[in-house]
Amino acid sequence: MANEILEEHINKDYEWGFITDIAADEAPKGLNEDIIKFISAKKNEPEWMLEFRLKAFRNWQNMVEPEWAHVSYTKPNFQDIIYYSAPKPKKELASLDEVDPELLKTFAKLGISIDEQKRLTGVQSNIAVDVVFDSVSVKTTFKETLAEKGIIFCSFSEAVQDHPEIVKKYMGMAVPPTDNFYAALNSAVFTDGSFCYIPKGVRSPMELSTYFRINASGTGQFERTLIIADEDAFVSYLEGCTAPQRDENQLHAAVVEIITHKNAEVKYSTVQNWYPGDKEGKGGIFNFVTKRGICLEDNSKISWTQVETGSAVTWKYPSVILKGNNSVGEFYSVAVTNNYQQADTGTKMIHIGKNTRSTIISKGISAGFSNNSYRGLVQIKKGASNARNFSQCDSLLMGDKCGAHTFPYIEIKDKSAVVEHEATTSKIGEDQLFYCKQRGIDNEKAIGLIVNGYCKEVLNKLPMEFAVEAQKLLAISLEGSVG
Amino acid sequence: MISIKNLHASIGDKEILRGINLEVKAGEVHAIMGPNGSGKSTLSSVLAGREDYDVTEGEVTFNGKDLLELSAEDRAREGLFLAFQYPVEIPGVSNINFLRTALNEIRAYHGQEEMPAKDFLALVKEKSKLVELDSKLASRSVNEGFSGGEKKRNEIFQMAMLNPKLAILDETDSGLDIDALRIVASGVNKLKSKDNATILITHYQRLLDYIVPDFVHILYKGRIVKSGGKELALEMEAKGYDEIKKEFEIAD
């Protein structure tokens, strides 16, 4: 009985695996300075941007791919990747009517509405969306509404053209182009992404979001997101992503940077659902992402919430540098791995300012033959007096072929620091499932109930619409993994 | 209500139930007693559909349906309720949410709509009174951090909410002090009707002072070796199980 459910759901597992048949404008395969110049020229970039890229590229060439993560995979052949792919025609889009109908259909299928009118009159709440398809941003909604408040929300490419002074000032501040192998690669070849600037004293009237979609075969996606909250500003930012079902491994190496000024707050939520590969572990996205925020000034706050259900391999540590006094960093994470997925994810909290506080709540769920690791660093620098950290890392195992690992690193250079770490490992028991069944709740619903209960502290941090989405996704990712 | 004929069940190579015959009609309360290891809990697990046991022989009809053909969840939806000897904790899942899911799953099975939230909450209020369950417990995670007595009361509360046709109470009296026992028993008595039936599985006579059975069966080495009225329970209490053991010793 349970096996039938399992079969049924594994087969219909990944609902977003379709491919959009759309003509694409692509760069030739491979990576060299000419390709970078090609990308830069395609985007009509200023000289300084090209310089930034080339510098990063030269650095990258001398770097080695990191091997410390608890994952194993065949390293990508960087000369076998297409670094630029844009849906044709690539011209300025003045209105939605000019967007390729195939593309609109794709996003409709994904449940992403890029039609503002529909959203305004519909029951859904208003969320401004920047949609990135392969290498380019297709459409940013509600730009005008936001502009009235002085909020700049646009694609990264547009920001380079229209707000070069802001981009130049902040880009690379949280994640320097030399930071790590994948961040360097991204800095060299990034093609688009989202840019957001919230001016002094403004609370964004709506949630801003980016939706990433990889479509073309053989491509990598290298997008950059830069979010700046000026003094007393607030924004809640959402990120979602999917990719078609393909036998090859595709590389996604993104960079996200957040900068908060005095009293500002940025809340960044991700539901990551890249194609995880099939049940034998074939295909799937390599998700090698660098996300970091700096609480640049006093009393500011950066909060990361992530629900990671997709990707074949995930390597991701959304971090916060707590530079301003009294600043706050938070990391709430649910990472689910099933079949042959591997995840090595966690955070770094770097305490520099006085009275800085950080909270880490990580919930790992492993099923099938997967491996799920939490890796975290809590660093209290000298002079960060009265810094506090609380970390809680829980692992839930389903079945006996999967693994859960915890690698917490703590470095304390200031005696006044208070750092707490708690960790638990548990198993979904047959007893719990039977108890649910005896009350009329079937296996699938029971797993959903138990897993959602386990992740509650994190799911509670997500904005409403996202939380519902995440709950469904958790259930789908784990269907049939017990019993 | 339920008709058990020549039921044999084993776990691994070990046969635990060796031909159980039992007939329970609507409106009746049956008590099943017996020494440790006689198969009492196995019987309740097999009836509830726990997969650890293999049914090797026999048949069970529940309201005209072949019970053994049904999945555990469908048995529950058909109206079979097991009050667990050791209720399970489910962290992060509130009692209320758990019960609402259960209730609506059962309703869906019978083609009924979900119960409106308002009605559901009214029902929670009404039924929690029945077992004097603190309303705070309803919003806490299922059985998490509950005392032994609270867990047992919570089982009866769930039973009240789900309103089963047949309730099997597996050692519900174990670990209860006298006050808790009285509360639990009074809850069970209030839920009794001419349309439902109860099977009490117990080691001691004590519970039967509060919930008076119509029939008492003595289970020994996987068989019902003696049946009678409520006086049989008193007799067992007075004599102990030794006599039964002597009388019905079966070579393994």
Structure description:
- The complex is a heterodimer of chains A (483) and B (252).
- Chain A is α/β, with parallel strands linked by helices.
- Chain A is 25% helix and 35% strand.
- Residues 1-12 and 116-125 of chain A have low confidence and may be disordered.
- In chain B, helix 6 packs parallel to helix 7.
- Chain B has a single domain (2-249), classed as Rossmann fold (3-Layer(aba) Sandwich), CATH 3.40.50.
- The longest helix of chain B has 15 residues, at 95-109.
- Chain B starts with a strand and ends in a 5-residue tail after the last helix.
- By secondary structure, chain B is α/β, with parallel strands linked by helices.
- Chain B has nine helices and twelve strands.
- Chain B has a six-stranded mixed β-sheet, with helices on both faces.
- The A-B interface holds A 1, 429, 431-432, 434-443, 445, 449-450, 452-457 and B 48-51, 71-73, 75-77, 81-82, 84, 87-93, 97-99, 101-103, 105-106, 109, 141, 158, 162.
Identify the notable features of this structure and list them briefly.
heterodimer; A: alpha/beta; ten-stranded mixed sheet; 12 helices; globular; disordered N terminus; B: 252 residues; alpha/beta; six-stranded mixed sheet; 9 helices; 12 strands; 37% helix
Summarize the structure.
Chain A is an alpha/beta fold. In chain A, 25% of the residues lie in helices and 35% in strands.
Kindly report how far apart the N and C termini of chain A lie. Answer: 9 Å
Specify the number of helices of chain A. Answer: 12
Radius of gyration of chain B: 18 Å
Q: How many separate helices of chain B?
A: 9
Determine the fraction of residues in helical runs of chain A and give it as a percent range. 25-40%
Overall pLDDT of chain A, averaged? 82
Helix content of chain B: 25-40%
Strand percentage of chain A, roughly? 25-35%
Shape of chain B: globular
The CATH H-level superfamily of chain B is P-loop containing nucleotide triphosphate hydrolases
Total count of strands of chain A: 23
Number of strands of chain B: 12
Spans of at least 5 consecutive residues with low confidence of chain B: none
How would you sum up the major sheet of chain A?
Answer: 11 strands, mixed
Assembly state of the chains shown? heterodimer
- Computed over alpha carbons, the radius of gyration of chain A is 22 Å
